[in-house]
Design a protein that fits this description.
The protein is α/β, with parallel strands linked by helices. The protein contains 13 helices and eleven strands. The strands form two sheets. It has a nine-stranded mixed beta sheet with strand order 3-2-4-7-1-8-11-10-9, with helices on both faces. A two-stranded antiparallel ribbon has the order 5-6. Helix 7 crosses helix 10. The two termini are 19 Å apart.
């Protein structure tokens, strides 16, 4: 029996990036408007057709402010903050809303100018009265790299992963970026160059860490019948799952395990496919070791095996599990919340429109997001060429 959320198939019918890199001539709202117009155009739809709006980090009451700017008055809306994974969460929630008749056409959108504005937080506030200010900030942990470095150090200690294993992730991402004309950095990169880059927060070096860029995007989720005039192939949402575990790193039950275990299990079960069926993997590569954890937590390899798994070049162009095919957050674009760009790249791969980086015969793709501090949240979306 099909899952209740997929009994009536749901599709991503439009997907588009905002301007990327360093954007000096647009606001975040105008960037979203450009991407939304393009994504809706792919679907043969317009803003007048949108009756659900999902966004994050677009103001104090994000969907309200974005809706006002776009002239959309949704009957279903959400501005939940699940960090960079919010957009995979939103696909799951849009499926639920469409399946229950709460909306017909959902617009999911986001943009950031964190590079141009230089407004990304570098440390947690010490005197804001929050729990973090009381229980973490006094110990001097850096935000967020300190949290992720603790996870990386524990993982390497427990499972014997090496700096070369981490560096392989950065090299694989860069090889894909070299095939993507929109990537922020495209120069060739070697394992040795990653390991020679400055140590920022032991064991994470500069090239183990994602970019800080402007960017964003928009995707449109709907039933196929609402996109009869679509200019491009709709991509079916086969499954989705989500979970979150902790905010404070001291409350993390295991620094080597992410909530992707739960979100991946739910998404694959709903989709009726296995990790071995996946042709393209788009993981949230904010830090190199994160990709190792996702590979294990989603079942692409066993626990503690990811280092050896990637060292054979499986994630690179021509590998058996093409991953980070845009160049990822490490080399293509990381606008503070990467999750929406993972979905857009997965859609392009399944449509066969990824140009020089196209994965031949791609039929099933997974976009996996994370958010918060040291893998607080996770959401997994399984997509398929229909």
């Amino acid at each position: 029996m099909p899952h209740i959320l997929t009994a009536s198939p749901v599709y991503i019918v439009g997907a588009a990036e905002t301007p990327l890199g360093k954007v000096l001539d647009q606001s975040e709202l105008s960037m979203v408007a450009l991407a939304a117009k393009e994504a809706l155009g792919e679907a043969g739809l317009g803003l007048r057709d949108v009756d659900a709006l999902f966004t994050n980090y677009m103001g104090e009451e994000g969907s309200v402010q974005l809706g006002e700017y776009l002239g959309v008055r949704p009957r279903y809306a959400e501005s939940s903050d699940m960090g960079g994974a919010s957009f995979e969460f939103f696909v799951h929630h849009a499926m639920t809303a469409i399946a229950t008749g709460r909306c017909d056409v959902a617009l999911i959108a986001y943009a950031s100018r964190q590079r141009s504005r230089r407004n990304r937080k570098k440390a947690a506030a010490a005197l804001d009265g929050s729990l973090s200010a009381q229980f973490e900030t006094p110990y001097g942990i850096h935000f967020p790299i300190g949290h992720y470095a603790l996870s990386a150090a524990r993982y390497m200690h427990q499972y014997g992963a090496t700096p070369e294993h981490l560096a392989e992730i950065a090299v694989a991402a860069r090889q894909w970026a070299g095939l993507n004309p929109k990537a922020w950095v495209r120069d060739p990169l070697t394992i040795e160059e990653v390991m020679a880059s400055p140590m920022l927060c032991d064991p994470l070096r500069k090239l183990d860490c994602c970019l800080v860029t402007d960017g964003g995007g928009a995707i449109v989720v709907a039933r196929k019948d609402r996109a009869r005039d679509a200019a491009k192939r709709p991509v079916r949402v086969l499954g989705a799952g989500e979970s979150h575990v902790q905010w404070h790193v001291a409350q993390c039950p295991d620094l080597t395990v992410t909530p992707g275990v739960a979100s991946g299990r739910e998404a694959f079960a709903m989709a009726g496919v296995k990790p071995g069926d996946v042709d393209v993997f788009e993981p949230y590569d904010n830090f190199t070791h994160a990709v190792l954890l996702y590979l294990e937590d989603l079942g692409f390899c066993g626990k503690g095996e990811a280092g050896a798994f990637v060292s054979e070049g499986r994630l690179r162009p021509g590998g058996s599990l093409p991953s980070m095919t845009s160049g990822g957050g490490l080399s293509y674009c990381h606008p503070g919340a990467l999750g929406i760009l993972l979905l857009i790249e997965a859609v392009r791969q399944l449509r066969g429109e990824a140009g020089d980086r196209q994965v031949p015969g791609a039929e099933i793709a997974v976009a996996h997001g994370t958010g918060g501090l040291a893998f607080s949240t996770a959401s997994t979306v399984v997509l398929a060429r229909d």
